[in-house]
Design a protein that fits this description.
With 340 residues, the chain is of the alpha/beta class. The protein has 2 domains: 5-134, Four Helix Bundle (Hemerythrin (Met), subunit A), CATH 1.20.120; 140-339, Rossmann fold (3-Layer(aba) Sandwich), CATH 3.40.50.10470. It has helices at 33-41, 48-66, 71-86, 93-108, 116-143, 171-178, 195-206, 219-224, 249-258, 289-292, 332-339, and strands at 5-7, 13-16, 27-30, 151-154, 184-188, 211-214, 230-233, 237-238, 242-246, 263-266, 293-294, 298-299, 312-316, 322-325, 328-330. The strands form 4 sheets. A 7-stranded mixed β-sheet has the order 6-5-4-7-10-14-15. Strands 1-2-3 form a 3-stranded antiparallel β-sheet. The structure holds 5-S-methyl-1-O-phosphono-5-thio-D-ribulose.
């Protein structure tokens, strides 16, 4: 897959408009941080690591807009920009991690802000580069868990499109295939935004990796029929007691446990937030029309009926076999010991 986001030579943020996939592969080129914030909110770009890089690049664009202001005014304006960018999606920890990482550079810069934007742009570009390296290492570590002939279930899209490139949950699949193993993927469609059907299927098909899409309610049966051997999902935030990922992940993990099927979570360390517990995390609730109307179009519930739209799920660690990071594969206990 081509990168989902990049910094252009004329200082713009270029991203695949994921709302148009799988029908159209088109790009947005943004040069205003407010538009970058909107693109995160309306999910032109989505997936925790990609959101993080978009946030960093949004901050870089803001420094270009404000660099000629006196230092105090500059800092005030940048604080507002950071707030607008952070206020887009509350669950993915990479968003806050990325803005904070950029903020450290801004806050510690001693001189006139004029030359600061170059440093911030370089940092945002570095974060995009690091994302690919981290994902390749997740791929290498995760591929050791996969055997020739495995069928992997994944939920939502934690692939190349959810990152800069290569993906997290799909990285072990990509890496195992590069090693010559035969691996098939089953993708949950992932109501209501259909990231599995639209995005996971798109990127795997694009890269000629075998993929089949199922309705979200089918995975339990397929596990029972042994048509799935392993589950790998991504994550938006890992706290000390649970994994946050797309709504529906908890039910997949329960079905996996009940069928003795390993359930792995692929998590770059930028997604770990082990000083927190479930009670610290806000689960994003999105517009109810995402549930009542299929892809914002056909209404599927009677007029006047309320819909609830929680975007993320909480999966307790007792259902998680292992967490695959860029450093290795860890049980819950090992993860806490290594990173807490
Ligand atoms: O609402 P989304 O599409 O941003 O949700 C994405 C997910 O839930 C992914 O699984 C998660 O961000 C991990 S991405 C590598």
């Amino acid at each position: 897959m081509i990168p989902s986001i990049e910094w252009t030579s004329d200082n713009k943020v270029k991203m695949i408009d994921q709302t148009l996939l799988p029908h159209k592969l088109e790009f947005l080129e943004l040069d205003d941080y407010r538009d970058v914030a909107t693109s995160i909110k309306v999910m032109n770009i989505r997936g925790a690591p990609a959101i993080g890089v978009a946030a960093a690049m949004g901050m870089a664009i803001a420094t270009l807009e404000y660099k000629d202001l006196p230092k105090e005014k500059f800092l005030e304006s940048m604080e507002k920009a950071a707030e607008i960018i952070k206020n887009t999606r509350p669950t993915a920890s990479n968003l806050f991690w990325a803005v904070d990482r950029i903020w450290k550079i801004i806050a510690s810069y001693p001189d006139d802000p004029k030359n600061l934007s170059e440093l911030v742009i370089e940092e945002a570009k570095l974060m995009a580069q690091e994302d690919i390296t981290v994902n390749k290492n997740i791929g290498k570590n995760g591929a050791e868990l996969l055997q020739d002939g495995d069928v992997i279930l994944t939920h939502c899209n934690a692939g190349s499109l959810a990152t800069v490139q290569y993906g997290t949950a799909l990285a072990p699949v990509r890496s195992a295939i590069e090693q010559g193993k035969k691996i098939d993927v089953i993708a949950d469609e992932t109501r209501p935004r259909l990231q599995g059907a639209r995005l996971t299927a798109f990127e795997l098909h694009y890269d000629k990796i075998p993929v089949k899409v199922i309705s979200d309610t089918s995975s339990g049966l397929l596990m029972r029929l042994r048509k799935i051997n392993k589950v790998i999902v991504g994550t938006d935030r890992v706290t000390s007691d649970a994994v946050f990922n797309k709504i529906g992940t908890y039910l997949v993990a329960l079905a996996a446990k009940d069928n003795d099927i390993p359930f792995y979570v692929a998590a770059p360390t930028s997604t770990l937030s082990l000083h927190e517990t479930v009670n610290d995390v806000t689960i994003e609730q999105r517009d109810s029309t995402e549930v009542s109307n299929v892809l914002g179009k056909v209404q599927i519930v009677p007029d006047g009926v309320e819909c609830l739209n929680y975007a993320f799920d909480i999966t307790p660690f007792r259902l998680v076999t292992g967490v695959i990071t860029e450093d290795g594969v860890f049980t819950h206990k090992e993860l806490l010991k290594r990173y807490e």
